[in-house]
Request: fold
Amino acid sequence: MITGKTKLLGIIGHPLEHSLSPVMQNAALAHMGLDYAYVPFSIKPENLPDAIASFTAIDNLVGFNATIPHKQAIIPLLSQVSDIAQAVGAVNTVWRNEKGWSGTNTDVEGFLAPLNNLSPLPPLLKEERGSQNLSPRNWHQTTAVILGYGGAARAVVAGCASLGCAKIIVVGRNEQKLNDFLDSWRNSTAIGQLSVHNWQELPELLSKADLLVNTTPVGMYPHVDESPVSGDEMDLLPKGAIAYDLIYTPNPTQFLKLAEERGAIAIDGLEMLVQQGASALRIWLQQQDVPVDVMRQSLRQHLRLETSARLS
Reply:
């Protein structure tokens, strides 16, 4: 029951009808028995400055997520931005400080979370979150191939740089956009590892990939039979490589099916969605123990119901 004592969390974006964050965050808050509610705030781009200013006056608003199209535009409106968010050039999680609002990017941590079972947590994220190291993997000999150069690719590049990947290769179809993407990292430590390549070079690059990440929308519902990488191309991926698709519906995607059939370790985008949300919740509540399993199960149930509704 929402009362005058209820504390608020939320998400800002435009549009927001597709967002699954309220599903998993409210499931977590209810499971924890907290008097909190997580609500969507649909804010048009031109109204963002006024919205952030007005949020300061809402005493029971603890924090919020930012999604498209506000992840970059919100940065100059914040009084403090974390190193990770500076590196990515985007903020997705905001909380109060004495001077206004602080921001960080938990998309990077969300991307890294499934990989943390294979590696120590990168030092920068370990310092920010106080997390413990996990089992070791030698990322310093890893070649990461990233398909796409949009906003999601930026979080992946920052994550791979934090892991210390030897090579970070971004592949796309538009040469100008590729060059612009590379140029945007000129002042980052990632630039020494980063290179961009045209899609025609993909077959050669796949044969060298230890980690292959799809950040494109190819294969997302309703185009469930599509994959950014063909079966013949996937044959070139070394066995034991990691194939990571940021798409979470369908689950698994055609991309992951092809990769797993060829001996790759498959990771889907649902876990990234869950983990970036869990990281945000830890920040807002200032506690490490949040019900990640509840968040994951709430999303799986929601997606099953959506799928059933579409098929009926």
Observations:
- DSSP finds twelve helices and twelve strands in the chain.
- Confidence is low (pLDDT under 50) at residues 129-136.
- Residues 17 and 40 are 9 Å apart (CA to CA).
- The first strand starts at residue 7 and ends at 13.
